[in-house]
Amino acid sequence: MLAGLHVEAEKQYTQEVDTSFRVAMASFGKNVTGSERCSVVAVVDDKEFVLCSLVPNKIEQQPLDVVFSPGETITLYTTGKNDIYLTGNYIPDNAEDGEDDEDDEEIDSDEFDEEDEEGDVEELNSEEEAELLKLIAQEDEDIEFSDEEEEEEEEEKPMPVKKQAEKRKAEEAPVQAQKEKKNKKDKKNKNKEKEAAPEQAAKKEEKPKSNELPNGLIIEDIDAGNGPKATKGKRLSMRYIGRLMNGKVFDQNTKGKPFNFKLGKGEVIKGWDMGIEGMMLNGKRRLTIPAKLAYGSRGAPPDIPPNATLQFDV
């Protein structure tokens, strides 16, 4: 069943979910104004998640695959000046689906029985009846002949002991070969599991390392990188994406000329001077910077509100 919601700009929609539903598409409406990016934000358990971002005349619809379950209290709202339409479908309960399937099967079987009962029955004429009796008599003869063959087989002389042993050995040979083949396969699988264990352990170790400093700055190393480290006084070239904690992107440098600055000289916010120090060439970090190490109580209107915690992928 189709599900849909018209999310108007600057409005919030809160609901406790009764029936599971999937959001499959987000798109602008017929009338779009301006060129400002608009994001769809979902709040679940007091946590905000950005489902997607749309840009007028560039990205006006975005496929999604987000499922909300019964019992969840969700809030949906948009950032920007345009309305966004969410569409998807309700997901029926599994138990109800099972009952429907059983009902369908019962209906199908009843219909099948009715077709058998209503089938046409043709009467045999005398010639056809005689032919049928003849065929039955031949089948009876074949059955009796088969019985005689079975009796003859039972009356055969017993096999000598030596031949019985050879026959048993020949029958056991394929079974033994199958056992040996299975043992080799099990041994090979165990070796593969042993080889895979270090790889899985290595993957676990590859999780981003997180370090929270006493001043509230959180540094996560996503990719350690290689080469020389960033130290105070060095001039650096950086790519970055800056977000508010609700997921809204307020600034980014992902193409063109990289952003250049001298580390530790106050050319950037304190969170950058402290959080980027020690990074290696080609490394990737996520910095969660409290307001006191960013733009403080004043913020940076209109994009950064007062006392905003910022998150940078650098």
Automatic annotation (TrEMBL):
Region (Disordered): 89-231
Reactions mediated catalytically: [protein]-peptidylproline (omega=180) = [protein]-peptidylproline (omega=0)
Pfam families: FKBP_C (PF00254), NPL (PF17800)
Any one Gene Ontology cellular component term annotated for this protein: nucleolus
The keyword Transferase appears for this protein: no
Gene3D superfamilies hit by this protein: 3.10.50.40, Nucleoplasmin core domain
Biased composition (Basic and acidic residues): 157-172, 192-210
Compositionally skewed regions (Acidic residues) per UniProt: 94-130, 138-156
Keyword tRNA-binding: no
Keywords in alphabetical order: Isomerase, Rotamase
Name assigned to this protein: peptidylprolyl isomerase
EC number(s) given by UniProt: 5.2.1.8
Molecular-function annotations in GO: peptidyl-prolyl cis-trans isomerase activity
Family: Belongs to the FKBP-type PPIase family. FKBP3/4 subfamily.
Domain PPIase FKBP-type, residue spans: 233-314
InterPro entries: NPL, PPIase_dom_sf, PPIase_FKBP_dom, PPIase_Fpr3/Fpr4-like
Compositionally biased residues, Basic residues: 181-191
Leading EC class: isomerase
